[in-house]
Backbone:
């Protein structure tokens, strides 16, 4: 039946327009992660431990070049195994072998961090480790946008908002045409 | 007269039938549609996209009628296939990247990304070069003395406003152009007038241009019976009234005439 084939096709086409826009965004995010060499190239600040530099709700842009040597004063995002969320703090001390092996020293660096707004350094946050290694570092902060991250925070705290947004997007793309 | 002449010129060949032969299958104008069968089509007549989509849909509905052509869904199927394939590669890559450690997942994610970009590129190139402006591709097989296969392709585009006086173009909205109407009897709701199908070089209202190519053959496509290519344009005001309701009968009549011209082998 011509009409039956048309309606199955039309349904597939409409779903395709929705899913292809979502998949395009996912691919862009992953591609960005590959290019910047970090699993989360864009993160949102959740706590106030870096005030007054970063407030809760700021969006941070990270890169993690493998040959880069991190220095005292750099702001990095790290995730210790066993921790739920990554933490953004400033590097307080670095210990490396760069004086002896300048070419391969970046990957064997050991770091100590502290939040600007915290009274003590982060040793207690390291879940038993005495120092951070490069493999725990998600990336170094290269830039930021203020306040935009509140959307993500709101969607995480109020799940209904997330579903409402997704539902609204799905509805819009299903009733429209390309 | 013409037949004996061609018989004398081409000795060993049976003369090819003239277009007005009884071999010619029924054209769309001979199919009558009762008004109750139609759904009312109403669009936002300020949006050129909606106007064009409504016209394209009307062409597809009209020519897919049971006695007319059977639509070939090749372009749609290719677009669907490539599109869903790219969605699945994107989804699979994202899932893999989520499950596996970042450093270990890098080669696979690179591969997935490359595949996705390749598929998207192929989709874009296909849509631009091969599909182009095609709206409808149809085929019909009729059996009179022998099996006659027809194939018709329609493509359409919107001709935008192109006026010598820029002031005129900005002042006139698509439906406010009135020109002396010719004797065509339009449906009672239509208040706008029809301009003739020949296009003046300076357009003051957007128009819908429909091009058509038609081939009629037999013997499994080996002997060509007729071939036609036509194109015509009408301003959107001819088919849509001020509320945006589409005058489907007039539109179908215009399309039917164009198809019959193509079937008769005219080249425009």
Residues:
């Amino acid at each position: 039946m011509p009409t039956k084939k048309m309606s199955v096709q039309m349904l597939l086409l409409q779903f395709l327009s929705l899913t292809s826009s979502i998949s395009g965004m996912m691919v862009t995010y992953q591609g960005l992660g590959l290019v910047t060499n970090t699993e989360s190239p864009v993160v949102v600040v959740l706590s106030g431990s870096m005030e007054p530099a970063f407030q809760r709700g700021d969006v941070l842009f990270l890169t993690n070049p493998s040959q880069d040597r991190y220095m005292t004063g750099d702001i990095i995002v790290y995730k210790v195994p066993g921790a739920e969320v990554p933490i953004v703090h400033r590097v307080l001390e670095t210990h490396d072998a760069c004086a002896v092996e300048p070419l391969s020293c970046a990957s064997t660096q050991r770091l100590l961090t502290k939040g600007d707004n915290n009274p003590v350094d982060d040793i207690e946050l390291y879940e038993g480790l005495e120092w951070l290694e490069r493999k725990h570092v998600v990336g170094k902060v290269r830039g930021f946008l203020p306040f935009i991250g509140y959307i993500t925070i709101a969607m995480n705290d109020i799940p209904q908002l997330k579903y409402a947004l997704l539902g609204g997007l799905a509805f819009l793309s299903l009733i429209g045409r390309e | 007269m013409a037949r004996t002449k061609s018989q004398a010129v081409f000795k060993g060949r049976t003369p090819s039938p003239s277009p007005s032969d009884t071999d010619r299958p029924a054209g769309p104008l001979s199919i009558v549609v009762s008004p109750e069968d139609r759904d009312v089509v109403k669009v936002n007549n300020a949006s050129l996209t909606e106007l064009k989509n409504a016209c394209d849909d009307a062409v597809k509905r009209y020519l897919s009628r049971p006695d007319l052509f059977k639509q070939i869904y090749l372009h749609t199927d290719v677009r669907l296939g490539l599109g869903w394939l790219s969605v699945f590669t994107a989804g699979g890559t994202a899932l893999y990247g989520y499950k596996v450690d970042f450093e270990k997942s890098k080669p696979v994610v690179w591969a997935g990304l490359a595949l996705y970009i390749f598929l998207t590129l192929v989709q874009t190139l296909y849509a631009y070069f091969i599909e182009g402006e095609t709206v409808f591709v149809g085929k019909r097989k009729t059996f009179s003395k022998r099996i006659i296969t027809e194939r018709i392709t329609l493509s359409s585009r919107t001709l935008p406003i192109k006026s010598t006086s820029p002031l005129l173009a900005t002042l006139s909205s698509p439906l406010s152009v009135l020109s002396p109407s010719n004797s065509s009897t339009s449906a009672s709701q239509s208040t706008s007038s029809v301009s003739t199908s020949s296009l003046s070089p300076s357009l003051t209202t957007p128009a819908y241009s429909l091009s058509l190519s038609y081939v009629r053959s037999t013997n499994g496509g080996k002997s060509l019976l007729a071939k036609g290519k036509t194109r015509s344009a009408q301003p959107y005001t001819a088919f849509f009234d001020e509320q945006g309701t589409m005058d489907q009968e007039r539109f179908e009549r215009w399309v039917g005439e164009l198809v019959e011209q193509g079937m008769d082998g005219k080249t425009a």
Summary: Residues 2-36 of chain A form the longest helix (35 residues). The two ends of chain A are 25 Å apart (CA to CA).
